[in-house]
Amino acid sequence: MATLKEKLGEKIEAHRPRTTRLLKEYGNVKIGEVTVEQAIGGMRGIKSLVTDISYLDPNEGIRFRGKTIPEVMEALPKPAGKDYPYVEGFWYFLLTGDVPNEKETLEIVEDFKKRRGVPQYVIDVLRAMPRDTHPMTMFSAAVLSMQRDSKFAKFYDEGFNKMKAWCPMFEDATDLIAKLPGVAAYIYRMKYRGDVHIPADDSLDLGGNFAHMMGLPEPYDDVARMYFIIHSDHESGNVSAHATHLVASALSDAYYSLSAGLNGLAGPLHGLANQEVLKWIQGVMSQMDGKLPSEEEMKKFVWDTLNSGQVIPGYGHAVLRKTDPRYMSQREFCLKHLPDDPIFAFVSRLYDVVPDILREQGKAKNPWPNVDAQSGVIQWYYGLKEYDFYTVLFGVGRAIGVLANITWDRALGYPIERPKSLTTEMVEEAVGLKK
Ligand code: CMX
């Protein structure tokens, strides 16, 4: 039976003529237009990226390789007695578009075990940083420090071959995904658990071993599997995916590229919103002495936040126009496993009041919750209460999607990115304000 790399090679060979044909025969066909609002306003909706890994429909939400989140969770092989699939099988699925069988999945599980050791020099880099450094800074620095081991960089130095460039990219991507949970767990235990570390357990898959190294009991292993899968990819235009893709387009390797993407994820309007949600809720809880606010009281907290010029973290989205299915899958998890949790009750009350308030305020195009509105509740419930670590968890998951994407970028020979900028005067001339 073909290994994942062989299978991916076959998929790439079959796909390349499609991209080549589109470029050669239809390169001049228009697939969209750019307005002034888009050029000045963050490029919303400009169709200028192509990926087959995931697609985000504004009303339906994300599909990975054509499957919704519930379909993915249903289709992929799961460890015995667990509710959520192996992350390793999901990696196979994102790369190839095929659902792996049990044997194919377990091959990846074993491959990841061989790759997952975190080099001592990465530990040294982390330990040299001031202990109060934000964990996302540590995480990104650890990824960047591993660049010295890049197989792609070595391949480039030894004579670059465009058709084969995806192979070392795939190797770097696989090494990174296998190592990231151990890096994240090291940062967590060093910062928040008395610098006492737990060695990897060779009997466990990625999700199980992550829970083990974090020191969090079952069912945190399933939480980790669910969390990493749902956060993996959100098509290519979001900041972390686009930054990773952009940096990779300069033939930078996976380490440089992912580190750049993680730096974007660390922004409060993007992945850091998950820590902001919990921080905001804790603030409300302490003002209420732990009591659940009534709807009227909650409305006042929300309006106070808006009136002070802040956004409501966990609400709104640049593409989505309905409740995020990643929010819903986590909500379903909460309803099943922690229906009486007080923070879940807060999050549910927010869901009752925020959309109407944002509509009344009339600014946000999407008044509905996104993935970050719900994720901290689950982490807190299972003992991970240091909310400035939450974006690192998002980063471990996001790496899976963006690394699958840049492997395919190399396979299809996507060129260096270089959009064109104009001056304000040129735009004024284009709209007829100036001659
Ligand atoms: N609370 C208050 N105001 C909001 C808002 C929210 N949750 N969401 C959007 N708005 C405001 C915007 O700040 C903007 O205001 P100005 O006109 O004064 O600049 C206006 O509504 C229009 O924004 P938009 O077109 O609806 O949204 P954008 O595409 O510009 O931004 C996003 C999208 C996610 C950055 C924004 O909704 C936001 O800031 N949300 C809160 C932060 C958050 O949850 N981020 C996580 C998103 C998911 C992820 O990437 O992890």
Topology (SSEs and partners):
Elements: H1 4-26, H2 36-40, E1 54-57, E2 61-64, H3 69-75, H4 87-96, H5 102-115, H6 120-128, H7 135-145, H8 151-157, H9 166-192, H10 206-214, H11 220-230, H12 239-248, H13 254-265, H14 273-287, H15 295-307, H16 325-337, H17 342-361, H18 372-381, H19 390-411, H20 424-430
Antiparallel strand pairs: 1-2
What can be said about the biggest beta sheet? Answer: 2 strands, antiparallel
Provide the CATH architecture of the largest domain. Answer: Orthogonal Bundle
**Bound chemical compounds:** carboxymethyldethia coenzyme *A
Q: According to CATH, what is the class of the largest domain?
A: Mainly Alpha
Helix content: 55-70%
Structural class: mainly alpha
Query: CATH superfamily of the largest domain, please?
Result: Citrate Synthase, domain 1
Distance between the termini: 67 Å
Count of individual helical segments = 20
Rg over C-alpha atoms, rounded to the nearest angstrom: 22 Å
Question: Could you give the count of β-strands?
Answer: 2
Mean pLDDT: 96
Output the helix-strand order. Answer: HHEEHHHHHHHHHHHHHHHHHH
- Given as residue ranges, the uncertain stretches (5+ residues, pLDDT < 50) are none
CATH topology name of the largest domain, in short, is Citrate Synthase, domain 1
How many structural domains are formed by the residues?
Answer: 2
What amount of the residues lies in strands? Answer: under 5%
The order of strands across the largest sheet is: 1-2
The backbone outline, from C-alpha atoms, is: globular
